[in-house]
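Reply to dn_fold:

You asked what the input looked like. This is it:
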Amino acid sequence: MPQTWDPVAYGKEGAFVHELAGGVLEWLAPKPGERILDLGCGDGQLTQRIVALGALATAIDASPEMVAAARDRKVAADHGSAEALPYPDQTFDAVFSNAVLHWVRGQDEMMQEVRRVLRAGGRFVAELGGHGNIAAIRVAFAAVLARHGFASLGERGNYYPTAEAYTRRLEKHGFTVERMLHFPRPTPLGEGGMQGWLRTFCRGALSELPGSLREAVIEETAALLVPALRDEDGHWTADYVRLRFVARRA
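and this is what came back:
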């Protein structure tokens, strides 16, 4: 089920997305005057950090609501798809993406487009969900949906690859992989806890449920996850696993 976004809820429950992006920004290492595309910019907070380092950043997102939120931050943001970028060939010195690529359905089409808009020798730097990402959450959510007769909504359609598989895919599309890191990153959740996370990051599937059932599914999923992801003080930690890489257009 396609995901939809609420910028206000995302800003509250998903603040960790940009707050924990320091590592992938370090790998990007933006230089003053570089032309950089922020692919899947969300509400534009990371794009602002790239601009603050002196780069000439352009942002794009598939969500019109997120594009509007980014523009409210004075970010130069376009609405468009990762599989069909609206830019001429060899426009950018680097393409950057954080916590977005696992949402992209057409991975091969996306890589072809990224390669096309990169100049010769340009770099593709990104972090996405890696193999094993939110495994407990996915299993619990799918189990609750199936129990209520909505098993088809339990397949999020996300892509969480291993380092080996993603390296092969990048190389197939003409990239040379310079760095690749697959690592667990347990992620503390905000005051909304697991319920807030589910409302934000499973919004597409939840919107397909009868209104009277949505909160029940959220609460039942959270209850299943208490033993694994909530500590004795009531704090939630999501079982995130990340895949970070630097690849260069050959």
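The two ends are 35 Å apart (CA to CA).
Hope that clears it up.
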